[in-house]
Amino acid sequence: MTAERSVRKAGPARVDTPQNPVVLLADVDVTYGTGSAAVVALRKVNISFTAAEFTAVMGPSGSGKSTLLKCAAGLMSPTSGSVRLGDLELTAMPEAELAVVRRRKIGFVFQAFNLLPALTAEENITLPSLLDKREIDREWLAELIRKFGLEERTGHRPHELSGGQQQRVAVCRALLGRPDVIFADEPTGALDSHAGQQVLDGLRTAVDTMGQSVVMVTHNPVAAAHADRVVFLADGTVVDKLEKPTSDAVASRMNRLERRA
Ligand SMILES: Nc1ncnc2c1ncn2[C@@H]1O[C@H](COP(=O)(O)OP(=O)(O)OP(=O)(O)O)[C@@H](O)[C@H]1O
């Protein structure tokens, strides 16, 4: 059986949540290494992410943000607990099946853009769909290019684009396949504030007008203030949440956590 055909449905959810979550982590623990070298990176994390919701994940260095993102995106398996994407249980799913799930259902945006230098902006945007032998929705592609202000740049290669334009290409690439969720790891970390603002506005628009679920790790309170809520981690545990965050409120909670760390 091909990996595509064998992507399994999970059993009933173990945790009730008010809305149908796109991603649900239940009792997730992650320990790196063993014995005296063991590092506990996540402890009993319970969290869900829903459609049309923009979540920022914050916390001091080493608090477990990247580990949380990797588990939620099926890039690593937790030591124990459950990670569900819709009705798919990702833990213990064989890697070949996970790769298909990631390709079809998850969009990624990284700090370092990760564009292929030899390809034009448009080729970078369409590459994952082509590799997956999916037909390109040309209308959707044109709409994304327009929304992200890249009409004059589709034929340019990454080195001919500004950092902000490169990241907008990466966001379009993530959105083209209409993923269930987009995970963004410090998407504005390498950008100046104006370029960062454009990328964040694009993600915000994707949430508001396309019902996209976006989960973003950031160190920047101004970036986090674009989200609907901020989840704060400390020592591998969710210690706080802030709805409708302002950058001042986020900065003050982060100060408190950093003093504690
Ligand atoms: N591969 C690994 N092997 C051992 N320990 C690891 C590994 N990856 C992460 N850790 C440890 O797990 C903990 C959580 O790391 P993680 O990278 O998730 O934190 P973070 O909040 O993303 O940090 P930062 O903000 O500095 O990127 C840290 O103590 C880190 O040293």
TrEMBL record:
Entry's Gene Ontology molecular function annotations: ATP binding; ATP hydrolysis activity; transmembrane transporter activity
SUPFAM superfamilies the UniProt entry points to: P-loop containing nucleoside triphosphate hydrolases
Keywords annotated in UniProt: ATP-binding, Nucleotide-binding, Transport
InterPro entries: AAA+_ATPase (IPR003593), ABC_transporter-like_ATP-bd (IPR003439), ABC_transporter-like_CS (IPR017871), ABC_transpr_LolD-like (IPR015854), MacB-like_ATP-bd (IPR017911), P-loop_NTPase (IPR027417)
Keyword Nucleotide-binding annotated: yes
GO (cellular component) term, any one: membrane protein complex
PROSITE patterns: ABC_TRANSPORTER_1 (PS00211), ABC_TRANSPORTER_2 (PS50893)
Record domain ABC transporter: where: 25-260
Protein name in the entry: ABC transporter ATP-binding protein
Organism: Sphaerimonospora thailandensis
